[in-house]
Amino acid sequence: MNNTFEDNYKKMKSLLNQLEENKDNLDKSIDLYKEAMDIYNNLNKQIDEYKAKIKIIDSGNDE
């Protein structure tokens, strides 16, 4: 999944809305939850990458 952070965030919000609305089908809820967790993990990786980039930029300003 190589989407932008913004694309992943929008998809996550959509999945969470679907989970809230889906109260009658446990199998579908589990599938939605799994997909949401995959995106959540990807978002965390992207945030870690952004933090690393910011750290590099900040370390260059210490001089």
From TrEMBL:
Its EC number is 3.1.11.6. It is an enzyme of class 3 (hydrolase). Keywords: Coiled coil, Cytoplasm, Exonuclease, Hydrolase, Nuclease. GO terms for biological process: DNA catabolic process. InterPro entries: Exonuc_VII_S, Exonuc_VII_ssu_sf. The keyword Cytoplasm applies. Residues 2-53 form a coiled coil. GO terms for cellular component: exodeoxyribonuclease VII complex. GO terms for molecular function: exodeoxyribonuclease VII activity. The keyword Hydrolase applies. This is Exodeoxyribonuclease VII small subunit. The gene is xseB.
